[in-house]
Design a protein that fits this description.
Length: 368
């Protein structure tokens, strides 16, 4: 493969478009600019429709001088595919074209993809110079759409890790990407009926696991601290002095507070989904209410800190301890409720979703 490539495809609204890639992609940029193509905010080059005389033949000749190969894609422009799909999905979705001209840019993308299926593997083993994102402007979910490597028609769709759970790479809770057909209506049906429910369930399980891990870490450190206090000795068996005990207590409270912020981030959404009355433990309702109050107390403390509370860094964890202790005591009750609850379902598509897209204005794009 040449060190610089240009891929041409046809955009429904603007005609011929070009995307540059390769380790020496600036050569391709130079050839496109010299041939009269104009670059938009997303990094896509467009052949002007104002009659400047530029032709694809001119581009091929110019590209050859700049050691750049030119290829014509048999697929529609990825931006058109994404916009057609977004218009068919329930809710409000914003689309954007992503270009990974240099292979290293694609490698940088890998850790952020939350996927246990074909998309994650393709990003690691196949060259994917461009893609499109679809972002749900209400829920914040961001999907990644790529042309399926080695296939002439299909696409792959997966998701980025949700906010607060960015360590998506290798996560066993990650959902599996799915294959989409080249028809917007059928693709939207697959995303709505199969992928998004799987994604929401994965987010729910991942949030629950994050809280369980945070509470487990705090509990382990608390047991270690209690053992040290009870023995009156340091870990090296030397006598525990008052100053050392104070420092150890302060260190433990600071650790507990920082880990407890995970609970503060994720518990409100999960508690809202719990319905003890329809679970095997209907009497858990009062405990869940108590746990929710503890989270509110912690959120109030956080708000005080943001607004310039005079509390010292040492005082904040101390004030937060009652909330943490409440969760250490009853956190398992929350976890059993969260594990039998289910995420809210997004709206379903109408039964007769149209297969062919209707014309629509091009959305605003973010720059690269």
């Amino acid at each position: 493969m040449a060190e610089a490539q240009i891929v041409l495809s046809r955009c429904r609204e603007t005609g011929i478009v070009a995307i540059a890639s390769g380790e020496q992609y600036p050569w391709a940029h130079t050839a496109l600019a010299e041939s009269g193509f104009r670059r938009d905010d997303e990094g896509v080059y467009h052949l002007p429709a104002d009659g400047n005389g530029t032709t694809v033949v001119d581009l091929v000749k110019c590209a050859k001088r700049h050691r750049t190969s030119v290829h014509t894609s048999s697929r529609r422009f990825i931006g058109d595919v994404a916009r057609d799909l977004a218009r068919q999905l329930p809710g409000q979705w914003h689309t954007s074209v992503e270009i990974y001209s240099h292979p290293a840019w694609q490698e940088d993308l890998v850790p952020w993809i939350w996927d246990s299926g074909e998309l994650g593997r393709a990003l690691q083993s196949e060259r994917i110079p461009y893609a499109a994102t679809l972002t749900d402007t209400v829920h914040g979910t961001t999907l990644l759409l790529v042309e399926r490597p080695g296939r002439q028609l299909d696409y792959l769709v997966g998701a980025f890790a949700p906010d607060g759970l960015e360590e998506g790479y290798g996560d066993p809770h990650a959902p599996r990407s799915i294959v989409l057909p080249p028809f917007a209506g059928r693709a939207a049906q697959a995303v709505t009926d199969r992928y998004l429910p799987s994604y929401e369930q994965a987010v729910h399980a991942r949030r629950t696991a994050a809280i369980a891990a945070a509470l487990g870490g705090i509990r382990s450190e608390h047991d270690t601290w209690q053992s040290m206090v009870a023995s009156g000795r340091n870990s090296d068996a030397t006598p525990l002095r008052a100053a050392a005990l104070g420092a150890a207590t302060e260190e433990f409270l600071d650790y507990a507070w920082r880990r407890f912020l995970t609970v503060v981030d994720h518990a409100p959404t999960l508690i809202d989904r719990c319905h003890p009355a329809s679970s095997p433990w209907p009497d858990d309702a009062a405990t869940l209410s108590h746990l929710a109050d503890a989270v509110i107390d912690a959120e109030t403390l956080l708000d005080d800190v943001v607004q310039g509370s005079p509390l010292t860094p040492q005082e904040r964890p101390t004030r937060g301890w009652p909330a943490i202790e409440t969760w250490l005591t009853d956190g398992e009750i929350f976890l059993r409720q969260a594990r039998v609850s289910a995420p809210h379902r997004r709206p379903a598509l109408p039964v007769a979703a149209p297969v062919r897209p209707l014309p629509a204005a091009r959305p605003a794009h973010r720059s690269h």
